[in-house]
Amino acid sequence: MKKVTSFHRFMNRRPSANCRYQPTCYEHAANCYTHAFLIAPALAGTALLHRLSADDWHRLTAWVYGLGLSALFLISTVFHVVTWKRSHMREVEHCFHMCDRVVIYVFIAASYAPWLNLRELGPVACHMRWLVWLMAAGGIFYVFNYHEKYKLLELASYLTMGFLPASVVASMNSTEGLEELACGGLLYCVGVVFFKSDGVIPFAHAIWHVLVALAAGVHYYAIWRYLYRSPPDRNACGS
Ligand SMILES: [Zn+2]
């Protein structure tokens, strides 16, 4: 019995439907630190890709991807810090919670940008370059209008946006990097289990953060190795 009590020190009860989980102070700290430590590496990684860019199109793509990656860790960290100090900042917390959700859509689109922009695509597949941003805009519209109302729909939209562009990437002529992309995708999927396990598994959200960081790291490695370090195929829509 004593063991159970000690275990629950690190985790609060699971909330009722459409209510937010309230982390323990230990979980708050873990949620903050697991993404705070990645802001500087994400910015450094952006600078590296920018430096390796062969032309303006590479440079623009490096900015889009790098800013999406850095924004994910930065906004997540700010949101979790604000949530930790929530007693005086309810409205600010709500605003940053929406930003935390919005940045996930931006991050997914930005993560696909290097593959869609820098690899040769077919005449139909190349439309995924703007479709992925249209999907992100749809997700942002959802957050601003139905934030926290339909959690399963929100999860389904993240998963759809996460996997639909992969069908285009997997059909590219060059298969270099696909293993890393699949590996990162698998880490995100495992992470979703923890994302939905607040109040069931202690530190579930921090574990989700770590798995997101690992997946983003694997994807960054593939982008650096196959699209920036080695000169990628140049492309033109429909060429
Ligand atoms: Zn988080």
From TrEMBL:
GO cellular component, one term: membrane
Keywords for the protein's UniProt record, in alphabetical order: Membrane, Metal-binding, Transmembrane, Transmembrane helix, Zinc
Amino acids binding Zn(2+): H80, H205, H209
Subcellular location: Endomembrane system
Membrane-crossing segments per the record: 30-50, 62-83, 95-115, 127-145, 152-172, 206-224
UniProt xrefs under Pfam families: HlyIII (PF03006)
Coiled-coil residue windows: none
GO molecular function: metal ion binding; pore-forming activity
Topology relative to the membrane: Multi-pass membrane protein
Keyword Lyase assigned: no
Similarity comment: Belongs to the ADIPOR family.
NCBIfam families recorded: hlyIII
Protein name listed in UniProt: Monocyte to macrophage differentiation-associated
Organism: Hippocampus comes (Tiger tail seahorse)
Lineage: Eukaryota, Metazoa, Chordata, Craniata, Vertebrata
